[in-house]
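We modelled the chain as a single entity of 400 amino acids. Its sequence is:
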Amino acid sequence: SSVQQVYTLALQHTFLYSPAPVISTLNKTLTLGLVLPWQSKSEQDQDWARRGEQFEQFCNSMFADILKIKRDDIDTEVKLGRLREIISRDVTCLCDIVSCIAHRENKSKQVVCRGVKPVVRYVIQLLPCLEKDPHIFESVLHFTTILCDALRVQLGTQFLQELVALCLKIFSFQRSTAHGVGITEKFINLLTTVVKEPSVIYKHFTPDIIDISLNQLWPCVKERPTLCLAYFNLLHGILDFHWSHFYPRSNRNRDICTNESSFMRILQLYGESFVLTDFNVIKQNLLALIDLHDKHELFQKGLFHFNLKSNFVTVLFELLYSGRVDLLSEDIEELLFSLTENHGQEFFMRPVLTYLESHLTPDVYGRVSSKLELKNDLTSFRLNLRDVINDAKYFTHQIA
């Protein structure tokens, strides 16, 4: 068959130095040809053993160069630079092979896992040395994310635990500030993949991931706004998938937070994000907070209720009043409505009136403040809020 012909040529290294797009296409084609089930044959006739051996031979041939590299060969930047092309090529090949079976059958994933695992283990052993080259380190982090997402079951928890632990150890604060945007983003994506993993085995990483996210990543992210989307997606994953880390089910009092400082800091960062100018970050975080309340009753928790609610109302009303993100007005209004349910007088009327009083003349404030009312349904709440804001802007303009 054509697959067998290409397979034979690949074993002879015929395509090894072809252009990158050609190598990528061939890798994916060969992988799928060797590991996908044959549609016209039964399970008994799939010949998995032979096909598995062929795939392993293909991997051994494809990655022969990188498997020859020793740590002494790359223990300096100069030495690593000489081998950069080989390492970059082979890590890219690994990405192609693993990503193309990410959503395939378990049997296909098992075959791929057996073929690539020795290479993966070898690359991971080299990871502390590879960090010296930002381009290579970024590609390895990217591959690690793909690996955790596609083959976490097949690779086994112990292997992935070791891999994640190594990445956490390498990515220290001193190094993270020096890393480029690409490396930091790939690391954030890796952490996001880990926090969303349902297996209990990964729960023990939660404290370290939270610590790194708040104390090591945030100083980098706030200097690089392009990372905010990925970063706040990570924070949302921490709260959503690890809610019990903050509010354990074993607590008789479900309102007691066991990791109060980190919980508060995460939510404070959400509040700070609404003063950013990035439309997509604001939209993502509005929806994230609504989602957290719907799933976990975030706004009813005492810690949030007494310490953060008024501040959130103020910053969201200011965002609405400023008109900076008019396309998100309905999302902001919905979030404000959810925040102020049951405690509107104290946690909505007071901060909104305080904001208006500090931004309007006494005459305009007198006209507008009397119109602000508590409404029990979202539609009426929206209309009243819009009337108050429109009147405030209209009368201010008239006076000016």
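As a brief sanity check on the tokenised model: The chain has a mean pLDDT of 87. The two ends are 81 Å apart (CA to CA).
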